Amino acid sequence: MILAQTTSALPDNTGYVAAAYLVFFALVLIYVVIMASKLARFERELTELNDVADERFGPSAPAARPAPEEAARR
Amino acid sequence: MLYGTRLRALSIATLVTMTAALALAFFYAPMDADQGFMQKIFYIHVPMGIVALCGFVWGGINAIQHLRTRDAKYDLRSYVAIHLSLILGAGVLVTGSIWAKASWGHWWVWDEPTLVSFLIVFLLYATYQPMRFSIEDREKQARYASVFAITAGAFVPLNFIAVRLAQAYTHPRVFATADGGLPAKMQLPFYLSLLGMTLLYITLWRYEMASKNTSAKLRALRRKLAGDDAVAPVGRTAAPSLPTT
């Protein structure tokens, strides 16, 4: 049963606690890395498609392109 | 819309909540007299377990919507929900085993209903992706996967019931029981951690959804710009396909 008391005679299980939290953070980190690689692939594909569009329709005028800040918000 | 301010706000809220929860767990919550420092594992283990199981149910709810409407987006939502819950489920099993080793001296105990029932649910859902992969026809794949998600989703509450009906109360319980429960100073970090884990799940779910939608839109754009020949045919995959036209 859980008792909210402080005692100095507690076993030291720091390693196990650290391992459990490491597992959690590793899972999240791996997921974030996978998402980042997916985003990088999207960026590459977009650049490629932009080049295809430029070839077909000619380079788009700078004014027609959204400002970098606006593009980032999207 | 895809990478808009809402997703950014959600990510920040997740980070703040998780940081606050862990800070409170380590610096505010009192040390457990029975379990000592290793009780701190429960501030991630239990919320991960609850959120994973709720995620499976969420996958089932979306599967119901898919069968009702035949809209592919609900199949995708269900798939992503189950996919994320499986990842959290793996985390629950590993962190639980670490705790069991520290507390009981064994990595796994087979006569503990909570552990075994969670493992059964996890293994049941572990067959979800191979099952999808085994069906080539995309329409049929989505339909069968939805039926699976609904059936398995209904099985999930049994996990909670198993905890309550377990005769051997060897598994630590964090919610209030007849003879006591979580002390007040442990409740705040625990519930904040539960909120943080829920936000983390929602954030990752939305990121994954945005990623899948973007991928489908890129394929559609490539088809429009370069024609059908420029788009590589989608091979057999477990992931749902969104319409690219």
Which short descriptors sum up this protein?
heterodimer, A: about 70 residues, mainly alpha, B: about 240 residues, Four Helix Bundle (Hemerythrin (Met), subunit A), about 0% strand
Biggest interface, chains and residues, is: A-B, 34 and 53 residues
Structural class of the secondary structure composition of chain B?
Answer: mainly alpha
Individual helix count of chain B: 8
Largest sheet of chain B: none
**How many structural units, i.e. domains of chain B?**
1
> Might you state the CATH topology name of chain B?
Four Helix Bundle (Hemerythrin (Met), subunit A)
In CATH, what is the class of chain B?
Answer: Mainly Alpha
Major sheet characteristics of chain A = none
**DSSP strand (E) fraction of chain B?**
under 5%
List the helices and strands and how they pair.
The complex is a heterodimer of chains A (74) and B (245).
Chain A: H1 14-57, H2 68-73
Chain B: H1 5-27, H2 42-69, H3 72-104, H4 113-126, H5 128-134, H6 138-155, H7 157-165, H8 184-226
